[in-house]
Amino acid sequence: MRVTVTAHKPGTAAGPVFVAPFSADRMVGQTGALINDNSGDPVWFRPLPSTNLQNADFRVQTYYNARTRRTQQVLTWWQGTLALPPWYTNLPAGAPEPGGCYYIYDTHYRLLKTVFAHHGYYPDEHEFTLTRRGTALFIASRPVPMDLTPYGGPKNGAILNSEIQEVDLATGRLLYSWSALDHIDPADSEEAASSASSSDGVWDAFHINSVDEGPDGRLLISARNMWAVYDVSKRSGRIRWQLGGKKSDFTFGPNADFYWQHDARFRPGNRISMFDDGCCDLPDGAPEQRSHGLILNLDFRSRTATVDRTYYHQPPLESPTQGNTQALPGGNEFIGWGQSPYYSEYAGPGNTEDNGSRNLLYDARLPGSNISYRVFRNEWVGTPYYPPTAAARSDGGHSVVYASWNGSTRTRAWQVLAGPTPHSLSVVVEHAARTGFETAVATHSRGPYFQVRALDARGKVLKASKVVKRSG
C-alpha cells in the first residue's frame, strides 16, 4: 500500500506511523500491519494472505513480565475477520467474527504472546491494552439471545453484548470482567432495534469501542451507539457518571456534544479526549458536524462539559465509523481519521471547523478506499531476527544490487560484496546511503555472486544477507 504525504512541516513528534490497512470495498495492496516513516515509505510490513483477514489497533506498548519483573517495548494488534456487509450479514457491520486473537511481538519481530477472550466471547478489534501489572485489558463481544420486541426488534433476536476482560499474560487466566448488558439499559441506544433485521436478528445496541484505565482504578468506557462515555468503578462495576446519551449527568457547552464517538481517553486535569465521528444520522435540530478530534473539560461541580481543544481536517471529513485521537510527547496530537483514508498530526492548540489547516504539521492519505481503524505515531527501534534481503541483476556493463531489511530502524547505509564464487567475496561498495525501504546500488563488478551488509549510523555492520547470484 502506497501512502501519499500531503503535508510535512517541522515540529512533528519522533517515531514512525503505525497503520493497519484494510477496506470494506476494494483493497489497494494488501491488508496487514504496516509501519511507515514520514515520507510514506514502509519500515516494516507484515502482509496477510487474504484481504478478508484484517489487523486493527496496531501500535507500540510496554510489556511487563511479572516473572522477571522486566519491561520491554512490543508491538501489539488484533487479528481476525470482521462482519462486512454485503458479504456477511449474520452480525452487525464491523463486529468481530469468531476466531480472532491478539498478538504481542518483540523488537525482533518474534511472537511473544497470543491472547484470547473468555466466557465464549470473541476478541474484539476495538481495544487491546497492556497494563503495568503484566495483564491485558480488552473488549470482547458475542451475541446474547434475547426477546427484542420491547425495544422494537424481533422476538427471537439477540444483543451484541460487550465485556471488558482482563487476563494475566503469564497464565492466560481471566482476572476481571464487566458486562455492558449488566450495567447499561439497551432502551437508551441510538441504534434502532429494527436494524437487527439486516444482521440476522442481532442488535448492536451498545457498540463498546474503547476502554481506558485511570490511575485510581476507574475505567473510561465509550459506547458508540449510546452516544455516551461512562466512568466506571472497576472494583464495584458501578457507573459513577455518564457523559452524553439519553441519561447524561452533564450538560454541554457550545460545540461540546458528540455523536457516534470513538477512543475515549482520560487526560490530566479533569479532561477527556475522543474522536468525534459526529457526521451522520444526527438528532433533529442538531447542527451538521464534521468529524474531529475532541478534548473536553469536565466541571464536576456544575456538571458541565466544555470544549478544551478541537482538531479538524482540511478538506473537511465525514467519518461514519472508527478513528482515534492520540496524545503525543511534547503536546502534539495525532489523529487517525477512521473511515476516511487520512492520518494527521497537529500542534497542541489545534484548530476550529472553519480553519482545519491551522496547526497542521503532518498529513497523509491512504490509497483508494483503504482505511485503518486507528493510526498511531510511536517511537520504535526494530532489530529483526532475520537477515537483510538482497537481489542483483545485470544492467549493461555493470550490476545493480538491491538491498532491503524489513523492519530495521537502525540501518543507515549498505555495504556491497561481490565475487566469482559464493566463498570469495570482497567489498566492492564500501558505503551506500539507505534511500528507502529498498536501496538500489550500482557497481561495475560482474560478480556474479553478491551479498549486502546493513550498516548503522557509525558504520558498524549489523547483519549480512544471504549470498545471491545475479540474474540476467
How would you characterize this protein structure?
- By secondary structure, the chain is an all-beta fold.
- The chain has 2 domains: 374 residues, Methylamine Dehydrogenase, Chain H (7 Propeller), CATH 2.130.10; 81 residues, Sandwich (Immunoglobulin-like), CATH 2.60.40.
- Strand 3 and strand 4 form a beta hairpin.
- The longest helix is centred in the middle third of the chain and has 4 residues.
- This is Arylsulfotransferase family protein.
- Pfam families: Arylsulfotran_2.
What is the topological layout?
Layout: E1 4-8, E2 17-19, E3 32-36, E4 42-47, E5 54-65, E6 70-80, E7 101-105, E8 111-115, E9 122-130, E10 135-146, E11 157-168, E12 174-179, H1 180-183, E13 202-203, E14 208-213, E15 218-223, E16 228-233, E17 239-244, E18 251-252, E19 262-267, E20 271-276, E21 292-299, E22 304-311, E23 324-327, E24 333-336, E25 342-346, E26 360-365, E27 375-377, E28 389-395, E29 398-404, E30 413-419, E31 426-433, E32 438-443, E33 449-455, E34 461-464, E35 468-469
Parallel strand pairs: 11-13, 18-22
Antiparallel strand pairs: 1-26, 2-3, 2-27, 3-4, 5-6, 6-7, 7-8, 9-10, 10-11, 11-12, 14-15, 15-16, 16-17, 19-20, 20-21, 21-22, 23-24, 24-25, 25-26, 28-29, 29-32, 30-31, 30-33, 33-34, 33-35
